[in-house]
Amino acid sequence: MKNTNTNTKLILLHPYIQKQGSSNRLWVLAFISVLTLAFLVTLIYTRETTFITTATSSVIASSNAPVSGVGSASLPTTVINTLLHYASKSNDTYHMPHSDLKPISDVLRKCSSPCNFLIFGLTPETLLWKSLNHNGRTVFIDENRYYAAYYEELHPEIDVYDVQYTTKWSEMKELIASAKEQVANECKPVQNLLFSECKLGLNDLPNHVYEVDWDVILVDGPRGDWPDAPGRMSAIFTAGVLARSKKGGNPKTHVFLHDFSGEVQKVCGTEFLCSHNLLEANQNLGHYVLERMDETSVQYCKNHSSSGSLPSSST
């Protein structure tokens, strides 16, 4: 019997076609999953990196930022006492004893910050003075240009200048007499020594030295007390003028004379720093406190007739 339904067709879907479609969808799904995973990994990594960078920057910034009261604070007492102890125990023959170091250190501790500290002479205590005047301005003046250059090269943090002294220790009497005669002119107690022709005044220091309001001045140079040595007459006179000529800051200036038992220190201290300004003294150190004076002043001391006496001989 023949099949009369000749128009009927049987259509079969080959299994391969079904598998191919499913495989494509799987590949697409896998590709999307990989992209999603990569995006998530990138997002997480970026956030973590940003967080670490921000946190690190914050730590660095906080460590570099000055804490209130710390940036301008002086050295701790224990550090100061340690520095003084080891400096006073130095093996150097010419080092200062503790009894001389302590008064200067005490004044520096009480000095308002930043403190301006001027020292005549490079000595075994040079690095100590720089350290004790923490956050302040410390300037050294020395008569030996070669040693000054060597010291500055050895310690670049030290601010040192050389000066040419034109005085002689043996001429002290004549130089003091000349300064007192010129007290109303070239050797005035209040003036800018940069423009002065006073024989005792130092007028060849860097310009800014005359413009600074010095809070503390230490005269520990130049070296030598023989007839042809420069002596400390000019350094003492200059210290007195700088102290009286301050334009601002604290009106008082502490002036220390080291080797106070020396003839030049005693005589010139009395003449130009004045006995009524002498706060305390021992055999090695004289401590004067000078106040700012009016520019019209024509005498160094309140008592015009000085209580000191000039040496009878200059030899």
Question: Can you put this structure into words, describing what you see?
Answer:
The chain has helices at residues 15-64, 77-88, 98-110, 126-132, 145-154, 172-181, 207-211, 233-244, 263-273, and strands at residues 116-120, 137-142, 159-162, 216-219, 252-258, 278-281, 285-291. By secondary structure, the chain is an alpha/beta fold. The protein has two domains: 18-55; 96-291, 3-Layer(aba) Sandwich (Rossmann fold), CATH 3.40.50. The chain has a seven-stranded mixed β-sheet, with helices on both faces. A hairpin with a 3-residue loop joins strand 6 and strand 7 (285-291). Helix 2 (77-88) packs antiparallel against helix 3 (98-110) and helix 8 (233-244) packs parallel to helix 9 (263-273).
